[in-house]
Amino acid sequence: MIESPLLQKMMAQNWHRAIGAVLKGRFGTVPHDVTLLLSEVVNEGKLTKLAEAAGKCSDLDAFRELLLS
User: Fold this and answer.
1) What is the pLDDT averaged over residues 40-60?
2) Alpha carbon distance 18, 35 (integer Å)
3) pTM for the model
4) CA triple 67-35-10, angle to 5 deg
5) For a tag site, which of 2, 12, 44, 68 has the least CB within 10 Å?
6) Closest CA to 38 of 57, 55, 23, 56
7) Where are the chain's structural domains?
């Protein structure tokens, strides 16, 4: 677990880019609300689950639901 808030944010931004790239590759354009919701997540555990979901969710609505939970 990373203690520094700055390092956490930087690591989260890398996750955000990677997850966004997977979503874009699978579904085309990623809606702004999904990108915005994703950018608010900094917890590494949740980001790991979201990365897994990005690769296997049925559609962007299913991914959005995970972001909101």
Assistant:
1) 96
2) 12
3) 0.90
4) 90
5) 68
6) 23
7) 5-68
Q: Is the pLDDT of residue 1 over 60?
A: no
Chain mean pLDDT for the chain:
94
Long-range pairs for 28-32: beta carbons < 8 A, 24 or more residues apart: 30/60, 31/60
Higher pLDDT pick, 17 / 4:
17
The upper half-sphere exposure of residue 53, i.e. CA atoms within 13 Å in the direction of its Cβ, equals 18
Write the single-letter amino acid at 37. L
Identify the residue whose tokens are 């085309």.
28
